[in-house]
Every structure is written in structure tokens, then in C-alpha cells.
Amino acid sequence: MRTAEINTLRAIVSKTRFDRVRNQDVRKECNIIDVGTFITTRKREWSSHVDRTDSTGLIKAAKNLRPRGKREVGRPLKRWNET
């Protein structure tokens, strides 16, 4: 994700790797934070939002429950419709 992001931002500001401009400088010029930092922040915000909701919700159950049993032996299936 970070590679695609910085390539896009470099194209926007017309800078290449040969210009020897740091990634932080490119992000600062575009006023954009790192995509990894953004995702981590949004995950924390969503987690705290789920914690504030009622305790019987489907979202909270999906967050707190663990799958039971073991996986089958062999290579995992590639598509949803193969299950």
C-alpha cells in the first residue's frame, strides 16, 4: 500500500526517485499522512466505537469471538464459492 501511495504522490508532484526527494518531503508537500498510520488510527477509532455499542450486537460478537475447531489439512480454498 505504501509503495502505491508514494508512487501516486510522486506522480502528482512530478518528482521521481532520480530527483532524490525523501518520501516524507513528498507527503508533506501534498499534506497527506502515511497510509499505514491512517489505517492504524481508523482501526483504533473503530474498535473504541464498537466497545461503546451495546453488548449484544453482531459487530461486537464478531470482534470478541474466536473460531472453534481446527482447519482442514491441505491448501486453503481460493474462492468463497468453493466452500
Describe this structure in words.
The structure is a single chain. By secondary structure, this protein is mostly helical. 53% of the residues lie in helices and 0% in strands. It is flat, with a radius of gyration of 20 Å.
In short:
53% of the residues lie in helices and 0% in strands. It contains four helices and no strands.
The pLDDT mean sits at 86
Backbone structural class: mainly alpha
Helix proportion: 40-55%
Rounded radius of gyration (Å):
20 Å
Instruction: List how many beta strands DSSP finds.
Output: 0
Percent of sequence in beta strands: under 5%
- Main sheet record: none
Number of helices: 4
Query: Uncertain spans, ≥5 residues at pLDDT below 50?
Result: none
N→C terminal distance? 29 Å
Order of helices and strands: HHHH
What is the 3D shape? flat
Annotation keywords:
83 residues; mainly alpha; 53% helix; flat
Draw up the topology in text.
Elements: H1 2-12, H2 23-30, H3 35-52, H4 58-64
Helix pairs in contact: 1-2
